[in-house]
Design goal:
Layout lengths: L1 H12 L7 H22 L5 H29 L5 H28 L8 H7 L2 H11 L6 H36 L4 H27 L5 H22 L1 H4 L9 H24 L7 H32 L6 H45 L3 E5 L5 E4 L3 H4 L4 H4 L10 H16 L7 E9 L5 E11 L2 E8 L1 H15 L9 H12 L10 E8 L1 H8 L1 H18 L5 E6 L2 E6 L7 H19 L3 E3 L2 E3 L2 E8 L6 H17 L5 E3 L6 H18 L3 E10 L5 E11 L5 E2 L2 H9 L5 H19 L5 E7 H4 L6 H11 L6 E6 L7 H13 L3 E7 L5 H7 L4 E4 L1 H5 L5 H16 L3 E5 L4 H10 L3 E3 L9 H10 L35
Parallel strand pairs: 11-12, 14-16, 16-17, 17-18, 18-19, 19-20, 20-21
Antiparallel strand pairs: 1-2, 1-5, 3-4, 4-5, 6-8, 6-11, 7-8, 9-10, 13-14, 13-21, 14-15
Protein name: PAS domain S-box-containing protein/diguanylate cyclase (GGDEF) domain-containing protein
Organism: Streptomyces atratus
Pfam families: EAL (PF00563), GGDEF (PF00990), PAS_4 (PF08448)
Length: 944
């Protein structure tokens, strides 16, 4: 694992390169311009006239450029520093105007500049806007003590500089002015320049230690520009240089450079800061230095003040009263400031100790594990919660490599995510979330979810154990894709496996085969021995099937007693040999499934009919599964207990379906169909809440049969839509008649999703049908059957929304059987959930089905829906369903399907006996409609 460990350590310690190409170009360009100006100043510009022009109007142009640059930046921005750049623009404009006036006298008029003059006014107006601008840029204190310390720091710096300057030059200048009987204006002007420079220098130094963190590069460049300007002013006012100064002097290069830097500061420096990525490794080193200098500022100021006084004493001069007064105030300010800082430090120390104890309690008491990884990937801190979460002491983890506790299979993904996270801008993505496996103290792997933050170049991880959540998610995923009874893959997962087998590198392998298996005789076992025995038989059959297929193949239960397997191809090109091989495999499966099953104290036998279909180039999963299904039905029709290979001739079944559809139309035209209604009973009160309309075919002998095959044809063929139309119209008409007769009860009509999407039956026709017969729209409920996964849910959702808009209620029929049921519940506007009879039949005997049914009913209750259980045949089912929260039910426990006469008698009576009270006879006794078998078992259709 050394390579991944080194990779993670190198990743955490990596630093992005700083700087931007565009900023570098501007810096080089400005350097070239300044170098040219400095070279011209050093060489005297070639002539005195050109030197005066460049020394006056050149400086004026540079200051004007700085004024325009700062003004445009202030107009373009919207931050709180906008006034500062406007003030810098005004300050530079004053300098430009002063130099222009100076040039007017020297260049245009050819006269010496008078003292004082308009140029002095402009030059004196340069400092105040710059000073106020620096105050705007400074980081504002948040307490009164902070404001007082800022004032004291400014005076300490200004007073010290005043003491030193007065001792060196200002006192001499003041005495010289007084001795030569100079006017007051000239005396004030002679002292104004150095005093304003002292104030400006004080603000520059104060800002250096109190500058804001926002746009620091631009602020630093502006401070440097003003500092360079002040330095040039100080040299200009010094007696040694003032006597030899003339326009075009080398000193002008300093003012020129200051103007260029100020013009560059808001644009080029800001762009460079945006393009650069400051390395975090430099921050710990730079901050202590800056903090130390800020702390030493009062002492440095006092030292400067002392130097000023010592200079006067060493020179043998009488110490000036200005120096004494200024020195005393500096010392007093230092004492006051130190007292304030002492009190403030004591308060901060106490507050820091309280916060440290608070956060230590939070970290140590948190159930999450907090870890800090250094830039090298080594864990520097691990919170005590690691003992409870990971089963490892925090001290054992400190010093270990972070990568050493991550699962090797997850390490690559973790490194990739960390690399992406560190490359992203911190402002856009301050944190990220990583889920991986950590090694516990017992050697097991725990699923851990970590929130990752940047921390001094490394990482800080807030981790929690999510092993139970991951296990629960895996269980839910397994439950969604596996049959609850046999634990084999269900239809959804099997279809997914078929799609995978037909795609990718296996797309051209025609040796892949799908087997559909149906247990012959299972229904008889189920009826004779009960559902519990039937479930046990299915479990044993599933176990045999699973043990008989290869490791790479898939065995699944599609529903009821139907199973399926997929046998992956082996790449052989001999199709005949491959067919023989798969046929032998299928025959062995048939023999295996046909062996006796031990159920309770006896043995039962069932046979297996197997249909085999081979993959063809370009075939879809649904077509391949359909072919296998057709082959299976051919095996059952051929005598059962056999294997049948799919052949194109089996498409003749389509012709037979067409013939059945034609017979269906004839039966509808000749009135061979009748409509029965089965009551839907409230499980709590026994009242009839609705009736479910059911079509029956009347044979020549007068016996009613459930035409299962005809109904299936009606759903699959566009030419047989008459049955659905007849069913809906007849149900609405009879419901309207019952309402007028004083028996208002809702009627439920079962329609397939494909029928609802039929263009021949728009929702407007339903509204017209209700209006024609005078039935309120709320008295009609459409039961949607979602057995076909190919139905477009978007169109179905729009159609159901339109029906609900006119008042028709929507029920989801057969919920719990189709794999698309959850998707239908999520997307379709459903009022009622109708549980599939397959769940109801075993709800008493099977604990697994009991839990599943209870969960589905809880979902219906949470969504505010009513629930109807189909196939409620025995009192025990009524009691169980009512205890689970089911609201309604239909089945032989109350009544079978009734003709119109018997239905009205039941509605007149009003309610059915509900188990749990004194058991009474059914509403109709002795006169029920003759049925072949119980209500939930479809009666075979007579031969055609």
């Amino acid at each position: 694992m050394s390579a991944p460990v080194d990779a993670l350590g190198a990743l955490l310690s990596r630093r992005p390169a700083a700087g931007g190409a565009s900023a570098l170009v501007w810096q080089i360009l400005l350097g070239v311009v300044w170098a040219g100006y400095a070279a011209g100043s050093a060489l005297g510009w070639g002539s005195p006239q050109l030197a005066r022009v460049m020394g006056d109007f050149g400086l004026s142009a540079a200051a004007l450029v700085a004024a325009v640059s700062c003004y445009r930046y202030a107009r373009a921005g919207s931050s709180r520093f906008r006034p500062a750049w406007l003030l810098f623009s005004l300050s530079s404009f004053m300098a430009s105007a002063g130099n222009a006036v100076w040039g007017w006298y020297e260049v245009v008029l050819g006269l010496p500049v008078p003292t004082p003059s308009l140029a002095d006014v402009f030059f004196l107006c340069f400092a105040p806007p710059a000073i106020v601008g620096l105050l705007v840029l400074a980081k504002r204190p948040v307490t009164r003590a902070g404001w007082l310390c800022l004032v004291l720091d400014s005076w300490l710096i200004g007073g010290s500089l005043l003491t030193l300057s007065w001792s060196l030059a200002l006192a001499h200048t003041a005495h010289l002015v007084g001795a030569e009987d100079v006017s007051v204006a000239r005396a004030a002007l002679a002292l104004a320049y150095p005093l304003l420079d002292i104030v400006l220098v004080s603000m520059v130094l104060a800002l250096h230690f109190r500058r804001s963190n926002v746009n620091r590069s631009a602020v630093n460049t502006a401070v440097a520009a003003l500092a360079l300007t002040v330095l040039s002013d100080a040299l200009f006012t010094s007696p040694l240089l003032r006597q030899t100064y003339h326009s075009g002097h080398m000193l002008d290069a300093g003012w020129f450079a200051g103007s260029l830097l100020l013009a560059y500061a808001p644009w080029g420096a800001n762009r460079a800061a945006d393009n650069a990525f400051p390395t975090r490794s430099m921050l710990p080193a730079s901050r202590p230095i800056a903090g130390s200098l800020a702390a030493l500022t009062p002492y440095l100021a006092a030292a400067v003040c002392t130097l000023g006084i010592l200079y006067s004493a060493v020179e043998g001069r009488r110490v000036d009263r200005v120096v004494i007064l200024t020195g005393c105030t500096v010392v007093l300010a230092l004492v006051v400031r130190q007292g304030i800082m002492l009190v403030d430090n004591i308060a901060l120390t106490q507050e820091l100790a309280q916060k440290e104890n608070h956060f230590r309690s939070l970290v140590q008491g948190s159930s999450d594990v907090i870890m800090i990884a250094a830039p090298t990937g080594v864990l520097r801190y691990v919170s005590p919660a690691a003992a409870g979460v990971y089963g490892r002491d925090a001290d054992d983890l400190v010093g270990a490599e972070l990568a050493s506790i991550i699962h090797p299979e997850d390490l690559g993904r973790v490194v990739h995510e960390v690399r992406r996270f560190l490359a992203a801008p911190p402002g856009e993505e301050p944190t990220t979330r990583i889920e991986c496996r950590f090694r516990s103290g017992t050697g097991d792997w725990l699923n851990v979810e970590s929130t990752v933050n940047r921390h001094q170049g490394g990482l800080i991880l807030n981790s929690r154990d999510v092993t139970e959540r991951v296990r629960l998610q895996a269980q839910l995923q397994h439950s969604a894709e596996h049959d609850p009874l046999t634990d084999l893959p269900n239809r959804a997962l099997f279809t997914k496996r078929v799609r995978q087998a037909l795609g990718g590198r296996r797309s051209g392998d025609s040796g892949t085969a799908v087997l559909f298996i149906d247990l012959d005789g299972f229904k008889a076992v189920n009826d004779r021995l009960g559902h519990q025995a039937g479930d046990e038989l299915l479990i044993q059959a599933a176990r045999r099937l699973h043990e008989s297929v290869r490791a790479g193949d898939t065995a699944a239960r599609l529903g009821g007693d139907e199973f399926a397997t997929i046998i992956l191809g082996d790449g052989t090109r001999d199709q005949s040999a491959r067919e023989c091989q798969v046929h032998e495999i299928a025959d062995r499966l048939r023999l295996t499934l046909s062996q006796p099953y031990r159920i309770g104290a006896g043995e039962v036998r069932v046979a297996a009919s197997i249909g085999v279909a081979f993959a063809e180039p370009g075939i879809t999963p649904s077509d391949l599964m359909r072919n296998a299904d057709l082959a299976m039905y051919r095996a059952k029709a051929g005598g059962k207990d056999r294997v049948e290979l799919y052949a194109p001739q089996m498409q003749a079944d389509v012709v037979r379906r067409s013939e059945l559809a034609a017979r269906l139309r004839t039966a509808l035209r000749d009135g061979e169909f009748a409509l029965l209604h089965q009551p839907v009973v409230n499980l709590a009160s026994g009242t009839v809440a609705a009736v479910a309309a059911q079509a029956r075919w009347r044979s020549a002998q007068g016996i009613l049969f459930t035409p299962a095959e005809f109904l299936r044809v009606a759903e699959d063929s566009d030419r047989t839509a008459e049955l659905g139309r007849w069913l809906l119209e007849e149900a609405v008409e009879q419901a309207a008649d019952r309402t007028r007769a004083g028996h208002p009860v809702s009627v439920a009509v079962r329609l397939s999703a494909r029928r609802l999407l039929d263009k021949g039956m728009p929702f407007s026709s339903v509204e017209a049908l209700l209006t024609r017969h005078g039935l309120p729209s709320g008295a009609l409920m459409i039961e949607v059957a979602d057995s076909d996964p190919r139905i477009p849910f978007d169109e179905l959702e729009q159609r159901l929304v339109a029906l609900r808009r006119i008042g028709v209620r929507i029920a989801l029929d057969g919920f719990g059987s189709g794999y698309a049921a959850i998707n239908a519940l999520r997307r379709l506007p459903i009022d009622v959930l109708k549980l599939d009879r397959g769940l109801v039949e075993g709800v008493v005997e099977s604990a697994r089905l009991h839990k599943i049914t209870s969960g589905l009913l809880r979902i219906a209750c949470d969504l505010g829906m009513q629930s109807v259980a189909d196939g409620v045949d025995v009192p025990e089912q009524v009691l169980a369903l009512r205890a689970m929260g089911c609201t309604h039910g239909q089945g032989m426990a109350f009544s079978g399907p009734l003709d119109e006469y018997r239905l009205r008698r039941a509605l007149a009576r009003g309610e059915f006996p509900v188990p749990g009270s004194t058991m009474a006879q059914p509403v109709l006794t002795g006169g029920s409609v003759p049925l072949l078998g119980s209500s939930h078992i479809e009666t075979p259709v007579p031969p055609t």
